Amino acid sequence: MSRGVFGLAGAVLRDPIGVVEAHQDAESLREVVVPLLGIAAVGCGIFGVVVGGYRGGLQVPFAALKMPALLWIPVILTLPACRAFFAAAEIEVSWNRMTIAGLVAMARTAVLAAAIGPVVWLVYSLQPSYHLAVLLLAATLGLVGLPGLSVLARSMPTGGRNRWMAALASVVVLAICTAQTGWVLRPFVARPAAEVTFLRPLEEDVFSSLGATTRSATGDYSKDWQPERKGMFGGRGR
């Protein structure tokens, strides 16, 4: 099924499962791979411009360039694991179906991110604190990511044993990988007084950081969080 890029972007919002069903064979899949990747890149790039605008300057293009990778990398890394989960539930999923499901999930998330961008821009224009800005980014990504994750789960074949467990495991693994990828690719929201850099050194993990950010946003500085090179990546620093 041949679609224009704008029509395809609308289809991933209105009927994402229909897009998956219509592009499972190799030929039709090839027709939409580049457009779906382009939709994901443009949508995430627009959202990255909004997020980078909190600091301004070089942070704007830096965030715009990194934001598409925030979707691409987790999907590439986790699709084999997701396929294995469904295989364990006695559900055979072809690589074509798994690929198109991942692409549609990415594109849907990116379009939603671009659509919610003006709301985030409006909040950032009110100059919230750095910690609140980070929490807003995390909450927004979670909000727009849920519909994408649901596409991946709902587009898998029916039958098998404990299909819901395979779907839940796939969603959880993809969500965790996406969160940690965002931590590795940070900063997206740069501190107003910090030096602008494309990437920061690996330290701790996304969950400990969000906990510390939440405490700081509420004015609780009783635990002075000092990032260390430990956790999911690397050993403890000396």
Summarize the structure.
By secondary structure, the chain is an all-alpha fold. It contains eight helices and no strands.
Which range best describes the helical content: under 10%, 10-25%, 25-40%, 40-55%, 55-70% or over 70%?
55-70%
Largest beta-sheet details? none
Q: For the CA atoms, what is the radius of gyration?
A: 19 Å
Name the shape in a single word. globular
Summarize model confidence as the mean pLDDT: 87
Judged by helices, strands and strand pairing, the structural class is mainly alpha
| Unreliable sequence segments | 224-238
Number of domains: 1
Question: Distance between the terminal alpha carbons, to the nearest Å?
Answer: 57 Å
Q: What string, H for helix and E for strand, traces the elements in order?
A: HHHHHHHH
Number of helices: 8
Strand percent estimate: under 5%
Total number of beta strands: 0
